[in-house]
Amino acid sequence: MSSRRKGKMNETLNTALTASQRTDLVKPELIYIKSQIELLRLDDSGRKDSEVLEQNAVNIGQSSALIAEFESSLTHSVPPLSQATLNIPALPPEYLQVDLHESLNQEESQASVTSVDPVFQVPISKAVQLTTNDAIKTTLLVELDISKTDFFYQPGDAFNVICPNSDSEVQSLLQRLQLIDQREHHVLLKIKADTKKKGAALPQHVPKRCSLQFILTWCLEIRAVPRKAFLRALVDYTSDGAEKRRLQELCSKQGAADYNRFVRDACASLLDLLLAFPSCQPPLSLLLEHLPKLQPRPYSCASSSLSHPGKLHFVFNIVEFLSSDTSVVLRRGVCTGWLATLVESILQPNMRASHADGGKALAPEIPISPRITNSFHLPDDPSAPVIMVGPGTGIAPFIGFLQHREKLQEQHPDGHFGVMWLFFGCRHQDRDYLFREELRHFHKHRILTHLKVSFSRDAPVGEEEAPVKYVQDSIRLHSKQVARLLLYENGYIYVCGDAKNMAREVNDTLVEIISREVGVDKLEAMKTLATLKEEKRYLQDIWS
């Protein structure tokens, strides 16, 4: 028998043996429970339907509870982890001493939660829903009135929105920590005299002379996913043995997969953990040591001050995701959820967003701050060709570009302006084609020379050829023109949007195009693209 046939036979035997071993590993109780659930599907003709349904409901409930014992969850583990000897990280040394004092009603300002950047309180003057109600994501355009401030911007700039945590989550956290009656007390921090932490320092993002409620609302990222060091610290404040063991598992080397599945990937917050482990009673000092700073959220300017003097537009999707403890309740993003609630009373339905009437600012003011100037701006030479790639809300800065270019062409009718290409993409043409009317206007008046739109979820109609699905497919379809503009006409390409998928795919497509059109290998094409970046002719405004 040849060695190849011998190896094949051994492989077959090993596979069969492995399958047999797997069957042997399944607990008999679990097999029995699952078989009972299957039997419940069979009709019992000798009993009334109502009796069968009632008994089935009881049996299913009992069986589901038993099955849960054999499935892992945030609070429950199964073998081999539940029986494993654990390698637990060292306990992080505590270093903060926290005292709560009754406040003297001192005024608190959001300005104290940021760094050196100036903070502007600006009213919301308009809000428009850009998507239809049946779109997968809801996209809003918000207009801010900056006419009475010293806030200035140019198309391509971004700015920060300083947002608070959800009030209901803050109150729930205070309640769980048994600090609800002390929420207005001022927090005083000191370094513990006997701390073993080297270089211990007071957290800079916790301002002095502010109330506990203010700090939890404006200063700490209470929605942050707790790190393993935080879980390790929580272990020592957990009294129930089973809960203590589970927290040890989640921060251990052996429990890495469970941590990733039930904490990191589920976006579990500190509050989620405290509600799941009721015997855990951490002191306030532990939260202040481990919770990171509540970061301002950056947004791209989606307007031009030439077209909208005294106004600033920005666009965002309302972020919604499943909470960690249920598959039903949706949790909104910290900032987008807050903004969506703020504008509910003035929200206008989908219309031509750039020209919808604003009216008076009925919504509260929001704090914003400028971001460090970047290079994501139109070329100094208006005759240079421009290629814009921005699917979804990535189109935001390009609306500002186009508004700006339109005004410049009105002011300089005899000027020489380069071509402008836009590659835009969304899911459905009739649901989330953002700024459709504006783009058609720019295209009709030759501000936008080429408009290429792709719809990833729309099926071909009739016998027509399948359309391109993504912006990178559309770029590939026009590879000769793209290569000519970038390599021989000193053009600029701007990419805005998702970094993980879209921006990477677009980059790979550009490498492919340069390699094919110029006739060089992939490495040389990558060097050419790197040169474009160095020359600030390949610019990205991307986020993860």
Q: Please, could you describe this protein's structure?
A:
With 544 residues, the protein is α/β, with parallel strands linked by helices. It folds into three domains: 132 residues, NADPH-cytochrome p450 Reductase, Chain A, domain 3 (Up-down Bundle); 116 residues, Elongation Factor Tu (Ef-tu), domain 3; 157 residues, Rossmann fold (3-Layer(aba) Sandwich). It is built from 17 helices and 16 strands. The strands form four sheets. Strands 2, 3, 4, 6, 7, 10 and 11 form a seven-stranded mixed β-sheet that branches. A five-stranded parallel β-sheet has the order 14-13-12-15-16, with helices on both faces. β13, α13 and β14 form a beta-alpha-beta unit. The two termini are 56 Å apart. The N terminus is likely disordered. Keywords: FAD, Flavoprotein, FMN, Methyltransferase, NADP, Oxidoreductase, Transferase. One of its GO terms (molecular function) is [methionine synthase] reductase (NADPH) activity. InterPro entries: CysJ-like_FAD-binding, FAD-bd_FR_type, Flavoprot_Pyr_Nucl_cyt_Rdtase, FNR_nucleotide-bd, NADPH_Cyt_P450_Rdtase_alpha, OxRdtase_FAD/NAD-bd, Riboflavin_synthase-like_b-brl. It comes from Molossus molossus (Pallas' mastiff bat).
